[in-house]
Each structure stands twice: as C-alpha cells, then as structure tokens.
Amino acid sequence: MAGSPNASNMVVGLDIGTSKVVAIVGQPTDDGGIEIAGIGSHPSRGMKRGVVINIESTVLSIQRAVEEAELMAGCDIHSVYVGVAGSHISSMNSDGVVAIKEREVTPSDIERVIDSARARAISEGQRVLHVLPQEFSIDTQGGIREPLGMSGVRLEAQVHLVTAAQNAVQNIEKCVRRCGLDVDAIILEQLASSMAVLTEDERELGVCMVDIGGGTTDMAIFTEGAIRHTAVIPIAGDQVTNDIAMALRTPTQHAEEIKVKYACALTQLAASDEMIKVPSVGDRPARDLSRQALAEVVEPRYEELFTLVRDELRRSGYEDMVAAGVVLTGGTSRMEGVSELAEEIFHMPVRIACPQNVRGLADVVRNPIYATGVGLLHYALQETRHGQGLESHGGVVAAHKGRNELARRDIKDGHSALARIKGWFKGNF
Description:
CATH superfamily of the domain at 199-352: ATPase, nucleotide binding domain
CATH architecture of the domain at 199-352: 2-Layer Sandwich
CATH topology of the domain at 199-352: Nucleotidyltransferase, domain 5
Structural class: alpha/beta
Radius of gyration: 23 Å
Low-confidence stretches: 1-6, 388-416
C-alpha cells in the first residue's frame, strides 16, 4: 500500500456478505489493538447465502466499498484479507502423531504433526481453508497449548480442519482479482467474527458464537481456549425480509426498511397501539399496520432460526460445555427483542456483541454489522505477529498462499515462459 506515511503496516479486511460488502482499513496499535483508518460499505446484489451468483454485480460492489475505504484512509489498497461463508463450508476434528526427533520439540516437529493431522480424506472439490490447533500431547501428558521446547518422544496434535468448496472460493477470489486486488488469505467468517467479539474468558469457559448475517448464520463453539466446532445454517436476515414482504404484500426493499426500523423479535415487547405505514405494490395506497402484527410475522422465523442453532449445538455434543452462554453478532442480531427470545430458547445467558479493541472510528465500528470486517483485521495482525501464518503454532495455521508467494508467482508467470522451456531442455537433454 502506498500514499500514506504508515501505509506499510496497514491491513485491509474485506467482508463480502449477502446484503453488503464492507472494506475496513486498519493498523496495529502498540497495545495489541487496532486503529481503524477507513471504512467503505456498499449494498451487495451478487451474493446469495455466501456464494457468488453474479460476478459483475459482486465486482462492482467490491470496487465501490474499496474506493470508499481508500478515500477515508487516504491510501491505496493493493491486497485484502477476504471472509468466506456459506453452506458449502464443512469442518471436522482430526489428530496426528509424530516422533520428536531431537528429544525436544522444535518448530519443524510442530509443523510435521500438524501436517500429519491434516492428512485426512476430504471430499472431491473441497479445499482446506484452516488447520486450527486445539491442543497438543507429549507422551502421556495432554492439554498442552504451546509445546515448543518441551522434552519428550512422541508428539500428538488435535486440530480442527475447515474445508470449503473449491469453486465457491475461486469465484470469490476471481471477483477480488477483477478489482485489481491480491488476496492475502481466505478466512472463515465465524472465525474472524469470534476474534473481534469474544473475550479470552469466554473462550476459556466455553461459548457458542452465532453470527447472523443476511444470507447465512455462522456458528463457532469454543471451549478451553480452542475452537471445537463450526457450522453454517442457511437461514438468516433475508428470510425475515421475505416473510415480511410476503405477509404484508409489500416490495422487498420496503420490507427491508420496515424490518430495520420497526421490527421486533418478541411479540410481547411490541406495542399494539403503535402503527406503521406499509407501502403497497403498484399504485395502491399505503396501509396502516400495528407494530405487534409485524412482530407476529417476525417472531416465528427467529424462533425457527434459534431452534436450528440449538439443535446444531446439541448435535455437536458441546451443549453442556458452553458455560459462558451464547454470543450473538452480525447485522440481523440488532433487532429489538432478539436477545430476550434467544434466552427463552437456549435457556442460557445471551449477549449481543460488538467488535472490541478498536480505536480510530470506534463509534462507527462498535456495531455488530462490522464484526466480521474487524475480525479479519485481527486475524491479519495475528498472522503477521506469528510469522505469516504457516509458522504459527498456538494460533491459526492458514492453508493459503501468502502475498509474497502470489507476487513471486505473478512475476514468474510474466517473465519466465522462455526460461522454463530452456530449463526443461537442459534437464532432459
């Protein structure tokens, strides 16, 4: 990045969602937080449930959001960290075992054991996005977070593998590259959001984070400081909007406005004497409707969504381990009555969370909408601290090509067709 004095250490998070595209530019602060330099947001039309359905439209939205962020931050954006979600995401827990070569755990041992853990058969057309270490065991001693330098003979690792559909990820990469940007990494959205909204205590105690967006609801379960389970539910804010549009017989854009301004997720919280204007289809006059009648349309959909989340939590086997309860984030969690309804269904504490440890445009960013965008920055900075991700042991081990590698590949592609042919002849004749 250029054009700003401190642009060298700036990172950019790009959250390509179903309802909007958000680009956030930030740089690290001395105390481990993030200073936000610029935000750009633009409605998204080319995504559905986390998957690209229209490349042109998605490219346009990304360009607009990035241009807005560039203007605000006063720098040029060249590369971004991109969030990915959708029902094509799947995850599993895996383990690997290796012998410790020098009787003392070295970085290469950790690398080997993680490689051994990720050597699992995955479905055709899927690619590994993340290998997230949960804990290590040396000989008979388990529960080790950071094994580096410890003595032993046998090293074992438990990891959480996240895979995504190859073509879905390629389509997102294609959209970003058509905007003239490099992709630093593709990151699972609920992993990013959890970095922005969860506290260390919650991760330790056990928590279920639910990011309710426009097209998908993303879940991540943490216990003992490590991620244990991830899932994507293809029901979210868009379904609520569709329900309102159908029930009230109003166009979708008006239904969205009504949802944002007046909707309530719990019928008893909405006043029956409070009236709202509902625009009709065509040239028919607008109608009056009580806010309570609107809540009666919205509540069943939220109830269904939280029931699906609860079922997924039970299926994962971690329901009794999330003592810190449920943390809701994402744009669709902002509605009045959501936390009250969630507490009724989950029977555990529920809070609505905003991004933490941010400065700069903190007032703007302290909004559940920006959880994924800010989380992508947290991920990027953690990665740079851990030595570009692949060498990181305690944090996240990403399965991607870094910026430098991409740059090197581009240079090679440009200059070396002739050199490759020459080399082939040298090697073979």
